Amino acid sequence: MIRRESYFKIINEFIDTSFIKIFTGIRRSGKTTLLFSVVDELKNRGISEDNIFYISFESLKYQNITDSVSLNDLILDLIGNVEGKVYLLFDEIQLVDGWEKSINGLHADFSCDIYITGSNSMLLSGEYATLLSGRYIQINVYPFSFKEVLEYKEKVDNIEITDNIERQLFDEYLEFGGMPGLLELSSSIAKHEALNDIYASIVYNDILGRYPIRKADLFKRFSNYIMNTMGETFSSKSITSYLKNEVEETSRNTILNFTNYLENAFFISKIRREDLIGKKILKTQQKYYLMDHGFHHTLIESNWLKQTHVLENIVYIELLRRGYEIKIGKIYDKEIDFFCRKDGFECYIQVSYTVADQDTLEREMIPLLRLRNHYDKYIFSMDEHDMSRDGIKHRNILEFLKGDEF
């Protein structure tokens, strides 16, 4: 695997500090590999292997560690006779009940540097999480970006990235997404099977095994609906009507619970609307995107008419990966795909597969032209010809994905 430098820009600032480093993200997004990279970094800094402890709670070796008491016993046994500072790396710590109490105690009683991974966004919202308040840095780990895919192919597979190869790799990325483990697989069948397995592990381990869901089939059909309608306006009323038409009686509250479960497992990400005139967040008509768009083509019958939504999904996750706060922009009766903020910078983005057709270009430009401010305005598409005009900048999506910013 490659060393994911975008994360180490953050990690390096906090190595050997009192802050607990907590990596969160969807299952199989590369959190474990990131921990191994941290181990390598520690060794490169001269830390003895005797002072570094990696513990995976998914390993058979540690499956008996289920609560804070057994975790305390394990750690005290491991580090009791170690001299100097210890470095503790805990993988999938949400499998240990009351883990926060143990981490807080270690933080208070020992000279230690602590790293944690978890596959549930509720990791830091529990009753005991307040013990860690102000003592941790949370780092969201995403599947590979397209830029990381290119780096992997170049450095690991020793492939020379020509323009043709780059486009071929993007077509594969468009279909299969960026789950790191898929890059080791060569056949489409194997990649589809791997994505199916990842989805099953998320559903059974992170959702059905964690929450009181009586109708598993109903939940699975709901998750299929979410994947099939990614990037489309969502309301609990519309999905309730859909399931009712499918001879399934369910409540709006159940639907809200289902979306929360998928969000908690980092399978989907919710984006809200902001009224750009009234400057307020709207409570209805939010959208959901997949944390990895590869699940769409693998688990849902392919619909290539949805390619613009897939590209929206890719751009949205890339913007999250780069640290932007993102909303859907509403201006009168029109919509702007993404209104983005970061460090005082604000911009507006429309995404379309192509704007080569004049009618499509006009449709994408009209909402941006209605904005009467000085913030940057963009149209992203797969078109290579620069169609910038009237102060609106056109960007090729591949060029955006390969860069660091706009």
Question: In which order are the strands of the major sheet placed?
Answer: 7-6-8-9-10-11-12
Strand pairing plus helix content: what structural class?
A: alpha/beta
Task: Write down the domain tally.
Answer: 2
Helix content: 40-55%
Characterize the largest beta sheet: strand count, sense, and whether it forms a barrel.
Answer: 7 strands, mixed
How much is the average pLDDT?
A: 91
Describe this structure in words.
With 406 residues, this protein is an alpha/beta fold. It folds into two domains: 5-140, Rossmann fold (3-Layer(aba) Sandwich), CATH 3.40.50.300; 148-402, no CATH class. It has helices at 5-14, 31-44, 68-79, 99-109, 146-155, 163-176, 188-208, 216-228, 236-245, 252-264, 294-299, 307-321, 358-369, 397-402; strands at residues 20-24, 52-56, 86-91, 112-118, 136-140, 268-275, 280-290, 325-331, 334-342, 345-351, 376-381, 393-396. A seven-stranded mixed beta sheet has the order 7-6-8-9-10-11-12. The chain has a five-stranded parallel beta sheet with strand order 2-3-4-1-5, with helices on both faces. A hairpin with a 2-residue loop joins strand 9 and strand 10. Helix 9 packs across helix 10. The longest helix is centred in the middle third of the chain and has 21 residues, at 188-208. The chain is globular. The mean pLDDT is 91.
